[in-house]
Amino acid sequence: MTITRRYLLAAASAAAMLAQPMMAAAQDLPRNIRLVIGSTSTGGDTYQNSAIVADALSEKLGVNIKVDAVGATEAFKALDRDSRGTTMMMFHDQSYLGNLYGVTGYDNPFENYTVGPTVAINPGNAYLVPKDSPYQSMEDILAAAESGERVRVAIQPGGVSEIGFSAMKNAARLRSPGSEENIVAVNTGSQSDKNQAMWDDLADVINGSIQANEQFTQLPEDDQKAMRFVWVTARPETLEQAPAEGMGDTTRDQLLQYAAPNSSVPVNEEGENFTFDKEFFFLFNQETPQEFIDAVDTALAEIYEEGTIQERQKAAFFIPNYLPTEEAQQHLQDKRSTYEEVISEISGDAS
Amino acid sequence: MFEIITPLFLSLIVGGVFVGIVFGAIPGMTATMAVAVSLPLTYSLGLENGLALLLGLYVGGISGGLVPAILLGIPGTPSSITTTFDGVPMAQRGEGEAALRIGIVSSLVGGLISLLILWLFAPTLADFAIRFSYVEKFLIIFFALSVMAALSSDMLLGIFSGVLGVFVSLVGVYDISDGGNGELRLVPPGTEYWLDGGFALLPVLIGLFGLAAILEEAERGVPSAASSDEIAIGKSSSFSFSVFRGQTLNLIRSSGIGTFVGILPGVGGSAASIISYTNAKTFSKHPERFGKGEPAGIMASEAGNNGLTGGALVPLLSLGIPGDSTTALLIGAFTLQGIQVGPLFIGNNPTTWNAMIFAMLIANLVMFAMMYFAIRYFALVVTVPKHILFPVILMMCVIGAYTINYGIMFDVWTLLIFGVFGWLAVKLRLEIAPFIIGFILGPSAEVYFVKSLESFGTLSIFFTKSWIAVVLWILIAGSIAGSIAMSRKKAGQVADPS
Hints:
The complex is a heterodimer. In chain A, 43% of the residues lie in helices and 19% in strands. Chain A is α/β, with parallel strands linked by helices. Chain A folds into 2 domains: 26-122 and 278-341, Bordetella uptake gene, domain 1 (D-Maltodextrin-Binding Protein, domain 2, 3-Layer(aba) Sandwich), CATH 3.40.190.150; 125-276, 3-Layer(aba) Sandwich (D-Maltodextrin-Binding Protein, domain 2), CATH 3.40.190.10. In chain A, α6 packs across α7 (160-175). The radius of gyration of chain A is 23 Å and the shape is globular. The relative contact order of chain A is 0.16. Chain B has a two-stranded antiparallel sheet with strand order 1-2. The longest helix of chain B has 34 residues, at 96-129. Chains A and B meet through α2, α3, α8 and α9 of A and α15 and α20 of B. Chain A: This is Tripartite tricarboxylate transporter family receptor.
């Protein structure tokens, strides 16, 4: 067969067609969509979760979706600039916690953007102590603060890492007003910095995660790096669903011992326990056409109905958690109100 | 272990190295970007095959940076900055091909030595690395900063330029992700929208080295003839392995420094090549030749930055903590496969561990083979007439700047601002090398300095924290004394030219 220019052209056209996604299910959607995320890391949980959801959505809607790890400030700016629906954002509870803690660059997402569907939970948020620490539990930590002992907690300020710390202070205040002053923050950056703060004896407790810190809990006590969980902030119902692969050699039952109600951090006088699940959800520009948001919602509903995405999410230690826009908005608003109360209680702003 | 070495495994390494070299060789594209783009592919490839691809990209990306650094004077990656110091003068003398071959051989040596160290000592080194707290990390950065004077033709102007670089690097928010307070500093009113994130490193780098050089050439008038007449690649001297005679210690020391800096999370690859380079200069019998086309300078820089590749994997695989931005992405590949990386990783996953070591070994050898034998084709870039070459470079710089942070337009403006700044700086006698070193190291220096004071509450902690701190102070004092001695010698030579 002689390869003529016509053959080459035909082959090129065919290749170009194959490279395009299948015909758009929703004809009105932009063909190319940018999914900006609130993290600059392409190795972190926000990126991984977004990549999984973007893949599934892209296939379902027949459009190209590219995940861009631009970070929170730039992601909000990109969302502000684009009301056509060609830019959407994926982030987690940090988006409103940053606002509650007054971090620069964080507006109230419920007022300035349209909060969209939730897609997954990362159940790993945890607090750890050195393995040879005198503190065996949250009860020990709160008792120490009550007795006037200073407990240093390494966190990254202004968001997800701080909310558990705020809850600890609030619990100390409920137990013995004034004792919350003995729970002090050691402001650090990455997980590496928090671990290092513990190894340098600069922190008595560190914020961490099941995924990142579990192996350190398996080390022998005489190892300088050895740690022990004292608190897993996830709801017990969430932990029940957590994929076992992400727990390492720690069993689900063991982890449940560190979560409410076994590890108790009261949030109010009634003794209700504080819990925190890190949830991922979409954010849209307020002027994004409703049909676009509906199309994303419908596509996600179908994707979760089919069930394949759940397997990918679980393999990456996420708990699938699809809530359609309306339900998600209500759920996240309620969550925000609870945390707002905790933060205002400890800052003395509560009325 | 041998069951994982399949044709697919090997071809992914080869493909990864090739794509990595291309990414590293294009100004503005980096190894990190190559790994980020390919990360989603690893899900379908499985863990060992996925890692083969990513490690190939990593080794290729780090190594590819030396090509534009030597031939165009634009570092392909921040850790190639010191390669430009001697690579460009060699290329201008018509020894571009020799410079590239020296760089490639040194990269291979650095990569293999660091791999050997990783294989033999990973967990032990990780235990040593955690002794480096904020204080020791600050002192390492300070040590790297102290070389600014040694890299300058005028010590005072060099120090001023370096401090200016530190100052400019601190523009923007003191990021909460670094443990900062989230407040803006050094941002003029009205510019908060653009400057809240400060100036990104890569656009600054390619602006200062790429655009500034183009503006300078444009000012002189670009000849329409092919530049090959001016830069006769490989014509004036051919490469011989004899150039490495007497450089064994330099190569081993630089590879060791690269590996060691890689082991310390948060210190950064640029510090590796900067410290390696200045050590080579300090211990050289002919320090005056450095910066003027001295092969030992290229050896130190390239062995240092490739030494980083094995070093950065030590904390990743022994502590679950990435040593640099590229290895941070590798964690994603593990997580996507449901594998946790931490202190038990090597013991619990011997197959994956062996596969990684083997993949790194093959990647280094493939990198060497590809680059060493393709050098003639790389070198052809300087035979392209400048009136064609410069617009292409400019276009690549703009695309690189725009894509480096996934599409932020201000990064393109940053490129332009620092291109013009770089062009003007030479006229004002400011020194670009210390400026960029200050710019790169400034943010880490600030964080570790502030965190040291926040944690220990006294300046004396920098002298009393540990024996490591004392050793680092001795190195810093030696570096400063060396710079002063060198500066006096230079001044003496100017005063007495006979």
